[in-house]
Amino acid sequence: RERSLPRSMAVPAAAPEPGALEGGPAQDAAPPEDMLSVVAAARRSLKRTHDMFVGNHAMRRPEDSSATEMLLRMKMHDEYEHVRNVPEQANDVSLGLPTFLAMPAISDDATREAKPNAITRMLTDITGRGDESGRSRGLDREVGPIVPMQAPGQGDPSTTVMVAPRVQRHEIPKPEWHAPWKLMRVMSGHEGWVRTVAVDPTNEWFATSGNDRLIKIWDLASGTLKISLTGHISTVRGLAISDRHPYMFSASEDCEVKCWDLEQNMVIRNYHGHLSGVYCLSLHPTLNILATGGRDSSVRIWDMRTKMAIFVFGGHTNAVCDIQSQASEPQFISGSMDRTVRLWDLAAGKCSVTLTNHKKSVRSIATHPSEYTFATCSSDNNKVWKMPRGAFERNITGHGAIVNCSAIKEDRNGSSILIGGTDNGYLHFWDWKSGHKFQSLQAIPQPGSMSAENGIFGMTLDKSGSRLITAECDKTVKIYREDPNATPETHPLEWKAPKMSAGQRY
Questions:
Q1: Residues 6 or more apart from 45 whose CB is under 8 A from it?
Q2: Taking the model in full, what pTM does it have?
Q3: Residue 452, SS3?
Q4: Are 192 and 431 in contact (CB under 8 A)?
């Protein structure tokens, strides 16, 4: 077989003989003896290359010490410059430790060389042994944007052993004594479950509504029915009375939010937008806006005057059960059946914090009137959070049922009471600071109602805080008040400090 050589290795053809040019018989030229095959030529080239570089294969290029140090300084500057000017760590003087705990001075050179350096020293001197080695290499000038600093002295916190102070053990506060509550009045008039209740800012009357689609106005002092308002075609789930306008707002399962003029007792505005039933309603204390939430998992912010939706907050994945508003941040707090609590930033128009600690649906939220805290109530735990970021503080337990409504009352002695109404008809009263449940109260179902119809759906305190108004499942409205004849001697405080555990806290 004939093999073709590369063009660079091709052998020039021999000159033709004179006889062949003249037309004589052609004679094949004999190939030269030094003619090589392609494989042999490639192997010879590889051997030459191997012989050329095998001599210095293990040799490394000479390193430039100044370039290497410059590279290390640049890397350290990029990595540690943001923590260069952090405050100094605690030392013996700042901790106030006794003198016998102070570390003795280290004098020998070997130990001093083994000491750890501070970050600032590492940024300015990567050698770790002073400036002599750098000066010996001619690196007297500073490299890059780093300013040289003095060597750490004896009080350098990075060269001393710090003893942390003993952490104080968490103490459970002892609860304050509170007077027990008792039933004061029962009012009948609704033909269905009473779902919600709201008190007038003047503390003269209050409004209730429920499954009979009626909104009833009651006199607070005498408990007599004053007027019934009609207009909704389904269960009315939310009521709110404005303290700056003669308006009352109602939310219903017919997807409607209505504004009532209390001077004319008629509907003057309708807010359309919810895709399903509206479950809760809340008015902003200082702005002319209201927030609603319902079964469509959205929180809608409305302009009172223009009836336009300012925001439609999404994020919940199930029905929104309760909304609370306040003038400070967060201005709106919502609890949902999806077991989350969301804090809404009205200026940014989005959710700022999502709290996912609850294991069951959150049906009620209560804000403290004076503290910067709020409580979320669920069947697993009642949790107390600190605003504005929703930092968890503590659990309040002891109800063991679904909590439909809640309220916080500030007592005269500076303490507070958390009140919760459950689905099994119980009213629970807790001391706010300690979480001690000092009373559980269950009312008797009214005649004409089944024993199972004993749930509490809504509650509110009047403006004085002395009377508690509840909307209940037995078609009645009940008013409770504190027992004026109770004393610590007649109703002693029965409390024993519980043992704290991780399971109780979280």
A1: none
A2: 0.66
A3: coil
A4: no
